[in-house]
Predict the structure.
Amino acid sequence: MKFDTPRGGRRATVDLEPIGYVESDFKDIQHDPQVFKDTVSRIRLLEEYTDGLFRIDSYERLYVIFVFDRAEGFRLVIHPRGDTTRPERGVFGTRSPYRPNPIGLAVVRLLSVEGSALTVRDLDAIDGTPVLDIKPYEEGY
């Protein structure tokens, strides 16, 4: 994945490569992130990143940074969750996948670690979603 970012009046390219992928029962984009509440899914890391999970099981919760790889285009003003009965708002005040930079962030509960796979709860990402990074979640940090 390549992203252009401004730097000193010119654009620089930032390359991001997935460290793994989501395994989930959800196969299509979901407009209501509440459907993911309490669901269990897995994050399967590429083998070369397995050592990065060393002692991650000491954390109860994690941040998962991922890419909305199937969201096409973006909208700056939208109805939250695609519900036209709700007032419109700016995309940055929503969890919509239709963003200028299609990056997602979730706080998940870590259930288990088995080799290169993490089993987590509450990850609002669909099956096959590329994962860019995982970080420990700590209150007040």
